[in-house]
Amino acid sequence: MDFRLSEEHQALRDSVRDFAREVVAPVIAEHYEQHTFPYEVIRQMGKMGLFGLPFAEEYGGMGGDYFALCLALEELARVDSSVAITLEAAVSLGAMPIYRFGTEEQKARWLPKLLSGEALAGFGLTEPGTGSDAGGTETRAVLDGDEWVINGSKAFITNSGTDITALVTVTAVTGTRPDGAKELSTIIVPSGTPGFTVAPGYSKVGWTASDTHELTFDDCRVPAENLLGERGRGFAQFLRILDEGRIAIAALAVGLAQGCVDESIKYARERHAFGQPIGNYQAIQFKVADMEMKAHTARLAYYDAAARMLAGEPFKRQAAIAKLHASTIAVDNAREATQIHGGYGFMNEYPVARFWRDSKILEIGEGTSEVQRMIIARDLGM
Ligand SMILES: Cc1cc2nc3c(=O)[nH]c(=O)nc-3n(C[C@H](O)[C@H](O)[C@H](O)COP(=O)(O)OP(=O)(O)OC[C@H]3O[C@@H](n4cnc5c(N)ncnc54)[C@H](O)[C@@H]3O)c2cc1C
Fold this sequence. Notes:
Blueprint: H1 7-34, H2 39-48, H3 66-77, H4 81-101, H5 104-116, E1 120-124, E2 140-144, E3 147-158, E4 165-176, E5 182-190, E6 196-198, E7 212-223, E8 227-228, H6 234-270, E9 272-273, E10 276-277, H7 282-310, H8 316-340, H9 351-359, H10 369-379
Parallel strand pairs: 1-4
Antiparallel strand pairs: 2-3, 3-7, 4-5, 5-8, 6-7, 9-10
Helix pairs in contact: 1-3, 3-4, 3-6, 4-5, 4-6, 6-7, 6-8, 6-9, 7-8, 8-9, 8-10
The structure holds flavin-adenine dinucleotide.
């Protein structure tokens, strides 16, 4: 058993850490405040190869692995979660379905631009009326000659409306199974397709420099060959994508939790109360010690889930545990870091205010904490 990083993983972690501090940190507060998408930061992340990390070189990827992506997400989220979720959604939800399930033509057409970060893809699963119960999808796609005709809507879709968004993969009901259940399939809808409308961005509590929209499909027609993988495999496809994505979200949550430790130590050294730095008080030290303990244990949980996934072993339960634990402790750490900052912690100019606002969604997105508990309990045979 060895939890130490390889030289390649260490080098990647260090370069993303430097990038987050030197490039992301100076500009992100402004984007966060103005709710603007950080195109220039994303362009530079593309040049660094971050969007291609876990993909084979033949498609323009970096030939790395999913754990490398997780390390990059952790380091980005240590400074800012909007940028981190943009990368997470672009890679694990956007490009990955095409990489895993696409035809060679689909891969050749879309992957080079997605893996270079030149273009982004959204993953359209959630709908206004159904999220956790994704089998309740109402969006429909009917085959009419050699075209799919799509009608319905999707809610909260990340990266779906930027200037560089190339496509959204959409889950839709394409028929009825012999047992009467809905047949779900996934279809690629390129941006700008007539009948595909992207609503203005949501007004969000956090992740305000990331891109999230409601989408509507009104007799939206795409070629039959835009079906992703086999017809009727939509349910299995998104379960696989979400299982992996949970490890990535756990890494992002660990980054936020660690960022809370960083900012708390810095502030506790500078802020004086009753004649000395507040960091001299054991009550503050114990808070920081607990925060570090939580970030560390959550990191081990996602390392374990990623290691199992890369070894080709079952990892569903471990991914759910990692996501559940990391998101819970991210919220804990954000609350405590804010407390250590006193009144300044409630001011948007301090990074901890961003951490606090960005933490809650981690217990909701890509499967709520209740859903993670359901997955864990089911895997235990309950
Ligand atoms: C900023 C943001 C970005 C997002 N990006 C994407 C994206 O790119 N693509 C995408 O497809 N989706 C995306 N989502 C959607 C996200 O994954 C869903 O919001 C999430 O899965 C929860 O679904 P819901 O909001 O419909 O909540 P619901 O499913 O309505 O749940 C409401 C509450 O009920 C609980 N609940 C539901 N069922 C049960 C049960 N059986 N037992 C106990 N409790 C239960 C839930 O845990 C939750 O607390 C995003 C959401 C946000 C806010």
